[in-house]
């Protein structure tokens, strides 16, 4: 079974500790929301867990192997990663951009094996992009482009997905579409760790919530256990009314 684990992971930049002793675990069948205010250390935790950012202490492993010791291709076969910034170097067709997800297997757009092409077609269909497959990416809306990036990640056929703010700057309809796509991936046997700022959206979809503040994980558990008015005040400094998975923000503390 695919498994991403960190144990006591810490990350520093200069004299500042960005992540302090973080331990997380992600396996297939979980939809995990990573929550916390800006500057809490969420992105640094994700990057260090993947071996993309240097840790000062602690361990990060994928299926028991040190993530920092894996080649980019090896890592990509285990975990698909959607970073916050997803620039495209130049406009290209949707299908060619999604094909970049087959990098994990040494493929390149225009030189796809039958297996690669089938994986690309499946990812395009999963993200409802079949009708847009030959469109240039610079003609797409923000919501359509977000689905393209999801399809690119899914084309790798990795069992785990890490997505850093995949619904940022999207309108509510497209936020739900992206979250539904990720939820379908989890329902089909994948595992997802997703950074979100919308607590209501996180509560709607997540099976687990990991809460961070000032580089530390302060809670990790089911929404019903960890989503409370007291935690909203502790993490975000807001007054909130919480009823099960429903959250209503009332104002600053």
From TrEMBL:
Record keyword Heme present: no
Signal peptide (from-to): none
Pfam family name, one: ABC_tran
Keywords: ATP-binding, Nucleotide-binding, Translocase, Transport
Database matches in PROSITE patterns: ABC_TRANSPORTER_2
Start and end residues of each ABC transporter domain: 4-239
Keyword Translocase: yes
Classification via InterPro entries: AAA+_ATPase (IPR003593), ABC_transporter-like_ATP-bd (IPR003439), P-loop_NTPase (IPR027417)
A Gene Ontology molecular function term of the record: ATP hydrolysis activity
Reported function: Part of the ABC transporter complex HmuTUV involved in hemin import. Responsible for energy coupling to the transport system.
Protein name: ABC transporter ATP-binding protein
């Amino acid at each position: 079974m695919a498994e991403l684990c960190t144990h006591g992971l810490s990350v520093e930049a200069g004299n500042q500790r960005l992540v302090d002793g973080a331990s997380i675990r992600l396996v297939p069948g979980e939809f995990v929301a990573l929550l916390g205010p800006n500057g809490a250390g969420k992105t640094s935790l994700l990057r260090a867990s993947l071996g993309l950012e240097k840790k000062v202490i602690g361990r990060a492993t994928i299926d028991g192997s040190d993530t920092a010791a894996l080649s980019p291709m090896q890592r990509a076969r285990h975990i698909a990663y959607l970073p916050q910034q997803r620039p495209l170097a130049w406009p290209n067709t949707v299908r060619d951009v999604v094909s970049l997800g087959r990098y994990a297997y040494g493929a390149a757009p225009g030189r796809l094996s039958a297996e690669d092409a089938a994986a690309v077609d499946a990812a395009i269909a999963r993200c409802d992009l079949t009708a847009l497959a030959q469109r240039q990416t610079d003609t797409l809306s923000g919501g359509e482009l977000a689905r393209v990036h999801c399809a690119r990640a899914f084309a790798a056929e990795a069992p785990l997905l890490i997505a850093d703010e995949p619904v940022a700057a999207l309108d509510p309809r497209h936020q739900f579409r992206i979250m539904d796509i990720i939820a379908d991936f989890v329902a089909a046997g994948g595992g997802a760790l997703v950074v979100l700022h919308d607590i209501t959206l996180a509560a709607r979809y997540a099976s687990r919530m990991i809460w961070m503040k000032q580089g530390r994980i302060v809670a990790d558990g089911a929404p019903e256990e960890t989503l409370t008015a007291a935690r909203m005040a502790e993490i975000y400094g807001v007054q909130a009314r919480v009823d099960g998975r429903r959250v209503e923000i009332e104002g600053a503390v």
